[in-house]
Amino acid sequence: MTLGLDDDLGHPVELAGPPRRVVSLVPSLTEALSVTVPDRLVGATDWCTHPAGLDVTRVRGTKNPALATIGELAPDLVVANQEENRELDVRRLREAGVPVWVTRIETLDDAFASMRRLFADVLQVPAPDWLTAAEQAWATPPPPGPRVAVAVWRDPWMWVGARTFTGDLLTRLGCTNAVTAERYPKVEPGDVDAELVLLPDEPYVFTADDGPEAFPGRATALVSGRQLTWYGPSLTTARADLTAVLAGQGRMPRS
Questions:
Q1: Which residue, of 18, 95, 193, 216, has the greatest Cβ tally within 10 A?
Q2: Strand segments (E) across the chain
């Protein structure tokens, strides 16, 4: 049975059948695949740290995957993401005859729809229970929340801006994103008009001694970057965890 499908970018992907050997170049998809179809995942990046104890061949990083190692794994599908991975690597894999499925996820609804397509249309397995639970967890409208800014780097200071998954997550939590100039703008802390500053542990690892001191007189919270990104199974608890942080009930557990 031959499958002819278009990925999230509209690129045609020809498959001989439901993939049985999958390499993931995206940490969030690695976790979703490992939890749902563990027997099919054969490779992942060095940055794929969930679930704990993941035992598959490592293919280096998201921005510099070891294409030779991927080829040796003989995958019948590689999964990638428009933002996480380089178009050059995707193109080289395709030129080598490896089918690549590229996802595009800028909103929570994008994440749900993209993962449903990956499981139902590509892998041809039922939607996992965690995906249904995550959709239900985010279905109800939120109460009004504070004006929030999410830092992603310092030196220079960079922030979550417009048209980003995390920005959409803030909206779904009832918050207003205080930084909307572009996707990841550079803005000095003193120019950020936010009631609450969230300091995640990825990609920059903010700590209690490295971040909050830049915001005297303003509320800050150290949070898990994993809950601010579109990690699959973690979306089931992300809303409750983030709501607790917004309500001032302490720091979010970090992974």
A1: 18
A2: 3-6, 12-15, 22-24, 41-44, 57-58, 77-81, 100-103, 147-153, 158-159, 176-177, 196-200, 219-223
Per residue in 117-176, pLDDT tens? 999 999 999 999 999 999 999 999 999 999 999 999 999 999 999 889 999 999 999 999
CA atoms within 13 A on the CB side of 89: 26
Least confident interval from 14-18, 95-99, 208-212, 233-237:
208-212
Exposure string (b/e) for 70-103, b if CB count within 10 Å is 16 or more? Answer: beebebbbbbbbeebbeeebbeebeeeebbbbbb
Residues 160 and 122 placed together within one structural domain of the fold:
no
CATH (domain of 64): 3.40.50.1980
Report the distance separating Cα 202 and Cα 51, nearest Å.
17
pTM for the full model? 0.89
The rounded mean pLDDT for the chain is 91
Written as one string, the DSSP assignment of 186-235 is B--GGG---SEEEEESSSS--BTTBSGGGSTTSEEEEE-GGGGTT-TTTH
Phi, psi of 70 (to 5 degrees): -60, -45
CA 37 – CA 105 distance, rounded (Å) = 21
Asked whether residue 134 is assigned to any structural domain, the reply reads no
Whether residues 234 and 163 share a domain: the answer is yes
- Kindly indicate the confidence band of residue 1, based on its pLDDT and cuts at 50, 70 and 90: low
